[in-house]
Amino acid sequence: MGEQTQHQPPTPQPQPQPQQLNGSTIATTTITTTEMANTIPPPPITSPPTKIPARPRKIRKLSPDSTPATGDPNSSLAITTTTTADDSSPAAPDPPKPTPKPGKSKYAQQRAIVVAPPPPRITARSLSYEGEVDIAIRHLRDADPLLATLIDLHPPPTFDTFHTPFLALTRSILYQQLAFKAGTSIYTRFISLCGGEAGVLPETILALTPQQLRQIGVSGRKASYLHDLARKYQNGILSDSAIVNMDDKSLFTMLTMVNGIGSWSVHMFMIFSLHRPDVLPINDLGVRKGVQLLYNLQELPRPSQMDQLCEKWRPYRSVASWYLWRFVEAKGSPSSAVAVASGGATLTQQQQEEQQHQQQQQQAQLLDPINSILNLGACAWGQ
């Protein structure tokens, strides 16, 4: 037999043996270049870095300080929120802020304060309205206990007589610085010259010469005052309808533009002819003296102090002034309005000088009997 060929088994390739390092076995693997190229990913394509703002991440924690709104006694933990910076999570909406409880902080208490609305403002009407004087008296009683004592001592005033503004202003000029009897005599002759009270019109007075007025006892200065008033009516600067509808401040400004009519005369006209409810004659000696006696002041209050002292009487300071005149009359020191209404003499020289110092017009108005006589009258003053 021929030789039999024996097949040799393939020679085994040497396998890498694990290496020993510090007692640890490290396995090594042989990787070909091709395999390595297939296993390593290509580097990523990068773009210029862009700044992305960090978004807050909401981390919720459990806090045992408050009770949930569900009212479950077993769920006594409330969720609070802490904000941290994180670029990967989107911003979550803020939870509603809890309403602060009273007593937690002073800021919560300040927010809880409710400002009360101001009391309703009293709107006063003309004192000739029925029942308006009674409303005024009740208001003054509540506003000033000291004035309430005067109200108890005297009967209420009446404001039920009305004359046209032009006639009342004309009489105001004629009665200036005259006693009641002398003023009445001149006024009677003046009415007769005009053909009656209905004839006292701007055009009628402008037709009268200073000589005609002087013959009935009207001085040249008063004649110029009457003509100035009539011209302002004729030119449309003043009118009866405008005077009735003007507010107090505008009316005071317009009337003091007339020669011979000062602030005191305007105040008397507004109270006794127009029956305005909230007029305070700050230059009237009788009202100032009444305030001094009522509040037991050491000195006579200055006109600049009168508004502050009588503020509580608004909006019926006209009625309060009327009671002060009666108060001074009862004390034996009649005021200008009281002296005229009762037929007394003019003011003393000292009072006249003080009035002249206070007036801003060319001639101070010391006595204005026309307004007090026409509207208050002897009955109003208890005569």
Automatic annotation (TrEMBL):
Gene3D superfamilies from the UniProt entry: 1.10.1670.40, Hypothetical protein, domain 2 (1.10.340.30)
GO biological process: base-excision repair, AP site formation; DNA alkylation repair
Keywords: DNA damage, DNA repair
Signal peptide interval: none
Compositionally biased tracts (Low complexity): 25-34, 80-91
Region Disordered, residue ranges: 1-109
GO cellular component terms listed in the entry, alphabetical order: nucleus; protein-DNA complex
Domain HhH-GPD: 174-329
SMART domains tied to this protein: ENDO3c
GO molecular function: alkylated DNA binding; DNA-3-methyladenine glycosylase activity; DNA-7-methylguanine glycosylase activity
Biased composition (Polar residues): 64-79
Biased composition (Pro residues): 40-51, 92-101
InterPro entries in UniProt: Alkylbase_DNA_Glycosylase/TA, DNA_glycosylase, HhH-GPD_domain
Family membership: Belongs to the alkylbase DNA glycosidase AlkA family.
Name of the protein: HhH-GPD domain-containing protein
